[in-house]
Amino acid sequence: MIAGLVLHSALVPALMVTGDAGTDTDHMQEVGEPRAHVARSLHAGADAIVSDAVALYPFAGLETVGAEDRAPFAERALQLIIAAIRDGALDTGHVRVSELAALAEQKKMGARPLFTIVYLVERAALDALALDDSFGASSAPWPALAQTIRRASFDLCAALAEHLRGGAVDGGVVDALTTLNTRAVFLAALDKEIQRSERLGEPFALMVIDVDRLADINTRYGYGAGDRVLERVGIVVRNYFRDTDWVARLGEDVFAVLLPAIAGRDAERLAERIRLTVQERLGVHDHRSDQSSPVTISVAVFAGDSVERTLKTEQLIEAAQRAIVRAKQAGGNRVERSELTA
C-alpha cells in the first residue's frame, strides 16, 4: 500500500522581518569598526589566547588530544574566529575551515571534542578582551562585543559541521533521511551551550519533538509512509527556527532543537506554534483506500536562565524524555515542560 504525504500549506518561519532592506553604509561602517578593533586585539594576543585555551584541555575532557596537536587545533580555531569577527560572517568555503575539518578527520576527532576546542578558544578570547584596556568587561560596549565573539564561535561550529557532512567522524554529522544534524553533533553543540550558560549566565532552551503514533502510521500505511512523515516533519522544524538554532534528528522518531539566548516564555510559545503548524499542515493520505491519518507531535521544552556547572547533556535529554512520556500519557499532541529532578 502506498501512502501519499500531504503538506497542506506553505511553511511559515517563526520570525519575519519587514521594512526597508536598503543598505545603510554609515551604519555598516559604525558596526564594522568595533569588529575590526576586536579582530586586531585578538590577533595581537593570539599566542597568549592559544596558550590559555590549551591549558584548559585537561579540564574539558580533551586529555586524549596529542600534545603535538593541541596548539595547532587552537591556533586554527582562533584564526577562524578572528576572520568571522572581522568579516561579520564566516564563509563555509574558507580554506582554513577545510584545513581544520581535515585535521579533525585525520586525527579521528569527533564533533564534540572539536566543538569543545572552539569553546575553549572563545573562552580564552573573551578573557583576553576583558583584560584589554580598550574594552574591559565593565565597559558599556562589552555585552555587544562579547556577543560578537560568541556569534563568531557559533559560525565556526556551523561551518565545521558543514564540512564534516558525510564524513566518518562520529558516524557522520548529517542524518541521511532528514538531512538534519545527527545526535552526535547536536550533543556536542548542547554541551558547548551548557558550558557557555554556566559561565556567562546566559539563557538557552532545549526542545525535544516526538512524532505521535508513528508506529501506527507504519503499520497502517507501510514503513515508507513513516519515513516520509519523518522527512516532512524535519523540513517543517528546520525551516521554522533561526539560523543560530541547532536542529537535529535525535532518534528514530525524535527531533531536537537547541535555541541559544532565548527566554523560557518565548521558547514555550515557539513550541506551541510548531506543534500547531505540524497539526494543521501535515497528514498521511492513502489514495487507494481514501483513508487519512493526522500527523501530530509532542514537544518537551527545557528553558534555563542559567545552569549549574555539574549539569550534563544526558540529564537534559533524560528530563526531556520524561516530559515526552507525560505528554504521550495525556494523549499526545501537546507541549510539556521539561524539568530537572533534584
Report on the architecture of this protein.
By secondary structure, the protein is an alpha+beta fold. The protein folds into 2 domains: 25-173, Phycocyanins (Globin-like), CATH 1.10.490.20; 187-337, Alpha-Beta Plaits, CATH 3.30.70. It has 11 helices and 8 strands. The chain has helices spanning 25-44, 46-55, 67-87, 95-106, 111-130, 142-164, 183-200, 214-221, 223-240, 264-281, 313-329, and strands at 4-7, 204-211, 246-251, 254-260, 282-286, 291-294, 297-304, 335-337. The termini are far apart.
Keyword list:
3-stranded antiparallel beta sheet; elongated; Alpha-Beta Plaits; 342 residues; 5-stranded mixed beta sheet; Globin-like; alpha+beta; 2 domains
Short description:
This protein has 342 residues and is of the alpha+beta class.
User: From the 3D coordinates, which CATH architecture of the largest domain would you assign?
Assistant: 2-Layer Sandwich
Broad shape: elongated
Low-confidence stretches: 1-31, 166-171
Full CATH superfamily name of the largest domain:
Reverse transcriptase/Diguanylate cyclase domain
Query: For the terminal residues, how far apart are their CA atoms?
Result: 49 Å
**Helix and strand composition category:** alpha+beta
> What is the percent of helical residues?
40-55%
Mean pLDDT: 82
> How many DSSP H or I helices?
11
| Biggest sheet details | 5 strands, mixed
State the order of secondary-structure elements, H for helix, E for strand.
EHHHHHHHEHHEEHEEEHE
Tell me the number of strands.
8
Beta content: 5-15%
Rounded Rg: 22 Å
CATH class type of the largest domain: Alpha Beta
Strand arrangement, major sheet: 3-4-2-7-8
Number of domains: 2
Q: Fill in the CATH topology of the largest domain.
A: Alpha-Beta Plaits
